[in-house]
Every structure is written in C-alpha cells, then in structure tokens.
C-alpha cells in the first residue's frame, strides 16, 4: 500500500532523510520510531505530497505521492505533528468545514458525532481557547472521521492524557480490524507496542532497521528498584543471577530484558519491603538497540 524506495530529502545544514526504503502492507499498522529530528515528519510530509523529494520515490497504491498529491488525499486521513486550525472558528465549524470538503456528508457527520463522544470534546469552543490536548482531540477526530483507506499519523497522542491515549489505541485497533493501513510515528513505545505489527527505526535521517514488534520486545530492557527486608533476603537477591546495576545496603537496582518470569520467580521467594519499576524512556530503548 505504501512504498518508499531510496527516498532522500535534505535541508540546508545537513538535516533530512537519506536513501530510505521500506513498505507498509495493506491493512498493516506500521510504527515509525525515532528521536526528534530523525526524519519521521519529513517522510510523512513527502507521503502527503507536501514536500518534493530530492531523489527516490514514495508511492501510495502504486501512485507517486508528488505527481498525484491531489488525488491521493481523497483516500488519506492525516494528523500532522504540529496542528494549526483557524483560531476564530469553533471545533464544530472546523469539522463541518472538513466534511463539506469531502463527499458522503451524512456518513461523515455520523462518524464525527461518535468520535466527539468518545474523545469527550466540547465542540462549541473556539480553537484559540483550546488546550493542546483539546486541539489534539480535534485533529484525531478530523483524521478518523473520514473512513480513509490510509491513516498517516504524526505523534498522534502528543498532549493527550492516559485515558484519551487508551481511546486512541482502541480506535487504531478498530481500524486494523476494518483493514485500514496505518503509518504512525511516535516517541511512545507503549502505544507502538500495543498497536503495531512492525516498526521502522530511524536515526539522523537513516533507516536503521525494520523489525517485527515481537523481536523488538526481546531487546527492551526494564529497570526495577528493590529494597529487601533484611540482609538474608539481600544475599538471596545477590545470588539469584539477576543483573544488578547498583547496590547500596538493602537497596538494589536491577535490569532485565525480554521475559520477566525469572524476576517474578526470584521476588516471590524473597522478602521485599519496596518495589518500584522505573519508567522506560524510548530514547533509552533506542540507544540499547543501536549498541
């Protein structure tokens, strides 16, 4: 459905993308992972026909995204990484404007009413009064309501609270059931892990690899802070074979990767006073993978 072949687009100063090649199959949810400035947004803008590549090709359904940029927009739902709406219009006026720009008005109105309810968005407010999270909801509604064959989503959960992130994940999985093709860039490892079958990892404009999400999980490392109740329990932990990053008295920082069954088995046989899981930063995962 989406084909990218030796795609390059360079900006003054050396930033951009270099010889990217990957494809997204019909009905697949494909994650596009990378730190800020890696080239994710540039790639998506080329797919949208907003940028002309310096070399290489980007195609959707076999059609060049620059040469046929107008026609292809009829089958794409798009969420940009930076949202800009008409500030003086209300959310309702903006959504109705988008509906008027597409066909099948009655179906789209039905869709957007359902999405408004799911995202709990007050559509009477003018955009200039909206928070970042409310604008993000408006952008997601405008992308999902079109029943598009393809969704291009650039940092889709930016500014959303955990409840709305869950709503988003549910929507993406529903689109997968319908056979929609989704390319989604993100910093959020958790949302990629829950929705995508494959991921492409990009750094400094170059594609490092395309991996099945199951393989990527095997290299994901997690860190836990543990405090034992006594020295006997601490000694048991030392001899357990777990990877201890740091130790101070009865307190330990332990790192694991892949399957956590060994950790749970050791903890079940140890007297533990405190247990905390450290949040996993996506950039940390990238660095581990790069090494």
UniProtKB/TrEMBL annotation:
SUPFAM superfamilies: P-loop containing nucleoside triphosphate hydrolases (SSF52540)
Molecular function per GO: ATP binding; ATP hydrolysis activity
Cited Gene3D superfamilies: P-loop containing nucleotide triphosphate hydrolases
Entry keywords, A to Z: ATP-binding, Nucleotide-binding, Transport
InterPro entries, alphabetized: AAA+_ATPase, ABC_transporter-like_ATP-bd, ABC_transporter-like_CS, ABC_transporter_ATP-binding, P-loop_NTPase
Domain ABC transporter: residue ranges: 2-229
PANTHER family: ABC TRANSPORTER ATP-BINDING PROTEIN, ABC TRANSPORTER ATP-BINDING PROTEIN NATA
Record family assignment: Belongs to the ABC transporter superfamily.
Protein name from the UniProt record: ABC transporter related protein
UniProt lineage: Bacteria, Bacillati, Bacillota, Clostridia, Eubacteriales
């Amino acid at each position: 459905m989406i084909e990218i072949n030796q795609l390059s687009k360079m900006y003054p100063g050396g930033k951009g993308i270099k010889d990217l090649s990957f494809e997204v199959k019909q009905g697949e949810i494909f994650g596009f992972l990378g730190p800020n400035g890696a080239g994710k947004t540039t790639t998506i803008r080329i797919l949208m026909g907003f940028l002309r590549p310096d070399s290489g090709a980007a195609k959707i359904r076999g059609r060049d995204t620059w040469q046929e940029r107008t026609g292809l927009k009829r089958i794409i739902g798009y969420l940009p990484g930076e949202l800009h709406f008409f500030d003086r219009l209300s959310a309702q006026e903006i959504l109705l404007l988008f509906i008027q720009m597409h066909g099948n008005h009655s179906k789209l109105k039905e869709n957007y009413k359902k999405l408004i309810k799911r995202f709990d968005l007050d559509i009477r407010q003018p955009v200039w009064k909206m928070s970042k999270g409310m604008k993000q909801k408006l952008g997601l509604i405008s992308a999902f309501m079109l029943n598009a064959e393809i969704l291009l989503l650039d940092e889709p959960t930016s500014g959303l609270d955990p409840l709305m992130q869950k709503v988003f994940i549910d929507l993406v999985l529903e689109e997968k059931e319908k056979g929609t093709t989704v390319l989604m860039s993100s910093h959020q490892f958790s949302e990629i892990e829950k929705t995508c079958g494959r991921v492409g990892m990009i750094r400094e404009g170059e594609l490092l690899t395309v991996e099945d999400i199951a393989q990527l999980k095997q290299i994901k490392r997690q860190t836990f802070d543990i405090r034992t109740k006594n020295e006997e329990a601490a000694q048991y932990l030392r001899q357990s074979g777990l990877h201890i990053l740091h130790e101070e008295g009865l307190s330990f920082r332990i790192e694991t990767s892949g399957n956590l069954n060994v950790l749970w088995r050791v903890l079940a046989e140890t007297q533990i006073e405190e247990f905390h899981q450290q949040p996993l930063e996506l950039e940390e995962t990238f660095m581990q993978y790069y090494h």
